[in-house]
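Pasting as-is:
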Amino acid sequence: MFTNFQQRRILLADILKENCLEAAAFVPGPNFYYFTGLKFSLMERPTLMFVTDSGDVFAIMPELEREMWSASMHDAKTFYWQDSDGFDKAFKDLAVELGSITIGIEGQRMRAFEANALKSVFGADAIRDAQAELAKPRLLKSDHEIQLIEKAIEISETSLGETLENIRTGMSEAAIKAMLMQRMLANGADGFAFDTIVLTGGNAARPHGIPGEAPLLAGAPLLIDFGASFQGYNADITRTVFCEHITDEHAEIYEAVLAANIAGRQMAAPAITCHEIDVK
């Protein structure tokens, strides 16, 4: 019986064939996890996993990751390398094993030094940016995946409620951020979807500002952009609340945004694009 991860790799193999690719290369990140169930850090040591159009798995792996990788991926043909020797030989040995093939890479994830290492042994023309094709299997979620996303949302919303119950005027953005992150971990998150953003006052007008020591004042808006991660699946929630009271001007803006939010959710349906909802 195939595991979920093996079934996903079989689907990927079919996608590779459809797009005239003989293999796909992944570095640690969402796709790597999706096809293996393993989380590695994206570090200075090249760590790559390859899936061929026949569903076979190959890897270039630092020696220090051998135990974790081999425990789950014992059927993969893996080329390990030591810091003392460098990784050049691992790439050359992989090229000998795979031969002359075209490899799709994650253009938005793979770094230049990893792509260059592949080009040096397979040739520049053999490496193709296949970001959209490689992410395609993740577009359709299974019932189990949806349950994991719902759990991440539940953790996030519960943690936000607990945080709002405990914040007080005078607390800094950084302190509120720390409280929210602690609550997410306490409620079962195994990480965070992205760096939590907590901004107040004029800072709240900056969509991706950096939380600092600005204090929460009465009547000020508090923007919170956050999400828990649970078993590889993320929540992404943005909320704006007001401390103690709200001005008439802020209330008018708030109601306008809320009305647009409700209209968008009511319009959302299969075959309706995000752009159509946005311009509505």
